[in-house]
Design goal:
- By secondary structure, the protein is α+β, with helices and mostly antiparallel strands.
- It has a single domain, classed as 3-Layer(aba) Sandwich (Glutaredoxin).
- It is built from 5 helices and 4 strands.
- Strand 1 (about 10), helix 1 and strand 2 form a beta-alpha-beta unit.
- Helix 1 (about 15-30) packs parallel to helix 5.
- The longest helix has 13 residues, at about 15-30.
C-alpha cells in the first residue's frame, strides 16, 4: 500500500461506529484519507504481509481474537500459526483486527482518537 504526500490510509469495519468516528477524526487532521472497509475490500496475501511488516507484528497478530466472529467460528489462537491466520483473514476479512492507520510516520492499530493525532503529528 503506497502512500501519497500527507496521506493517511485507514483500514476499518463499517459495521463498527467507533471506526466511523476514527475516520472523521483523521479527516480533520488530513484532507487525504483513503478508506478501506474490510466488509467491501478483499485483501491479498501481499497486502496482509505488508501490514504485518509495517505494524511489526506476526501475521497471526492481525487476527481480531476478541471479536464476535472469532468466537462464533470457535477458533483457538493456540492452534493458529501465521499461515493459518493468513488463510482465515483471506476467507473471513472481518477477522482482521481494525481499525488500522497507515501514515508516512508509521502504522498502528487505532485504540482511540489520540492515537491518530499522535501519529499524524509525529
Amino acid at each position: 500500500m503506497e502512500l501519497g504526500q500527507n496521506e493517511m490510509i485507514i483500514i476499518f469495519n463499517s459495521k463498527d461506529n467507533a471506526h466511523k468516528e476514527a475516520i472523521a477524526y483523521a479527516s480533520i487532521l488530513s484532507g487525504k484519507v483513503r478508506q478501506f472497509d474490510i466488509t467491501k475490500v478483499r485483501f491479498t496475501e501481499k497486502i496482509l504481509s505488508d501490514l504485518a511488516r509495517r505494524l511489526k507484528v506476526e501475521v497471526s497478530e492481525l487476527l481480531d481474537v476478541e471479536g464476535d466472529l472469532f468466537t462464533r467460528l470457535r477458533l483457538s489462537i493456540a492452534r493458529i500459526d501465521n499461515r493459518s491466520a493468513m488463510n482465515l483473514i483471506l476467507e473471513y476479512p472481518e477477522l482482521l483486527k481494525t481499525p488500522i492507520l497507515l501514515t508516512h510516520n508509521g502504522t498502528i492499530f487505532i485504540k482511540d482518537k489520540h492515537d491518530i493525532m499522535n501519529l499524524a503529528v509525529a
